Amino acid sequence: MKKYRYPKQIPFSKFVLKSSTIAKNPLPFHKQFFADAGDSFCVKPFMNPMIMLTRDAEIAKHILQKNHKNYHKSELQSKYLSRYVGHGLLTSNGDYWLRQRRLIQPAFHRKKIQNLLGIVSDTIDKQVQQITAGKTIDMYPLMNDLAFDVVGRSLFNYQTDAKTLKRLQAIIEELQLFLVKEIRMPYKRGWYKISGKMAYHMKLVAESRKILSDFIEERRASEESHDDLLDMLLNATYEDGSTMDNQTLIDEILILFVAGHETTANALTFTFHLLAKHPEIQDKVVKEVMSLDENLDSLARIDQLKYTKQCIEESMRLYPPAWITDRVALDDDSFGDYTIKKGTLLGVSFYELHRHPKYFKDPLQFRPERFSEENKKETAGYYFPFGAGPRLCIGNGFALFEMMLSVEAVVRKFTLSTTQTEIETNPLVTLKPVGVTARFEPRT
Question: What pLDDT is stored for residue 163 in this prediction?
Fold first, then answer.
């Protein structure tokens, strides 16, 4: 019999006794278990395969890059998440995922994104103009609206009215809250079915898909060119010359809405909090922004916002929107000191990895200079804000450009300040900020 070697095992009883508390926020427990067990630990649920959680960068690179073919996304994403947001790039595996990735990747090349930057910049400017000066504002709803509007306009070049997109936004947020409950408290699935909660949320799924289907049908019937993401997706062809059908398009568009707006909204909220908390760093960003020639196009401005980019990257180190990822081993594997069995569920905590003193000096400090040209080689192997390997987030370039233009637009108009020294986070599908506020004073 083959001998397997796992890291220190945490008694499953510890999870069972605290299951409801862990379900609300697993981060404190992860921190505690890592402190007790080291950089990796495992748990053996009754009648289920071993679960291994790690904050080890070498293990992360092994399963996400070096031996990625031996690892698929787990049913948490491929079955449960896909039920609500579609069977798209984020939630699929194997040959189907690879086919879709090859099809969609060209839409996110730098040259294609450049064509969208005018839409993105105009959308950001309109949102920033609506911010009320002289008030303390809850940041996340503001950034959530901004990011959702950017995705909506980039996808549809605003073919629809704001009310319809607001409804889609509300549905997506409600579905995510329910999804997290279902994943973290699987023992309640029977109750969710009996009580009608499952049926209610599946009706919301149907409504969201109907909204997107109407968008697609309207566009197919139109002979106009809109030069947006929907046009690119409609015109994208597989190797045999065929295109995506409506249901496949809806799957991919739902993923773009979920992954494309929420992670950006989270990252912007954390970034603005950190800039408000560190006025000396905010001043450096302002100096860089104000030195720009306002007649430059969006891409030229982005290329010059080097320190601004460092601030965003450092914010995503401290608060990675995609705070954890999971994989299932398709076959036995060995890495480091461990030999694991086929079927093992592995989780990589980017949140813990990014805060590990082994990889980052003074890891809890906000230091954008970590990502300067002269320093970023030191962090390159330990920084995973968009994942790693072949499944690196397809929209990472688009997201960074959007965030840089957003920071530029806000600091050009406002001075941010805050009295908050500590903030709360809510680790749902993404790492969400809770009650993060800042005061917006007009810049004089």
Answer: 83
Q: What is the dihedral of CA 222, 224, 226, 231, to 10 degrees?
A: 60
Interacting residues of 38 by C-beta distance below 8 A, sequence separation 6+: 7, 8
433, 316 contact by CB (below 8 A): no
Q: What is the pTM of this model?
A: 0.93
Quote the CA–CA distance of 36 and 365 in Å, as a whole number. 23
Distance CA 15, CA 403 (A): 38
Half-sphere exposure of 205 (CA within 13 A, CB side): 21
CA neighbor of 390 nearest in space, from 79, 93, 78: 93
Tell me what pLDDT residue 1 has: 62
- Torsions phi, psi for 96 (to 5 deg): -65, -45
Residues 379, 366: Cα–Cα separation, whole Å: 14
Burial class (CB in 10 A: 0-12, 13-18, 19+), 114: middle
Task: Determine the pLDDT at residue 19.
Answer: 75
SS3 438: strand
Smallest CA-to-CA distance from 329 within 57, 78, 63 is with: 63
Q: Domain residue spans in the chain?
A: 12-442
Q: What is the pLDDT of residue 169?
A: 86
Radius of gyration, alpha carbons of the chain: 22
Q: Concatenate the DSSP letters of all residues of 62-110 into one string.
A: IIIIITGGGEE--HIIIIIIHHHH-SSTTT--HHHHHHHHHHHGGGGSH
The Cα–Cα gap between 380 and 360 comes to 11
Q: What's the confidence (pLDDT) of residue 186?
A: 75
pLDDT of residue 191: 86
User: Alpha-carbon distance 55 to 41, whole Å?
Assistant: 9
Q: Are 411 and 289 contacting, i.e. CB atoms less than 8 angstroms apart?
A: yes
CA distance 409 to 213: 34
CATH number for the domain whose boundaries are 12-442? 1.10.630.10
What is residue 362's predicted lDDT score, i.e. its pLDDT? Answer: 96
Q: Which residues of the chain have pLDDT under 70?
A: 1, 158-160
Say which DSSP state 364 is in.
T
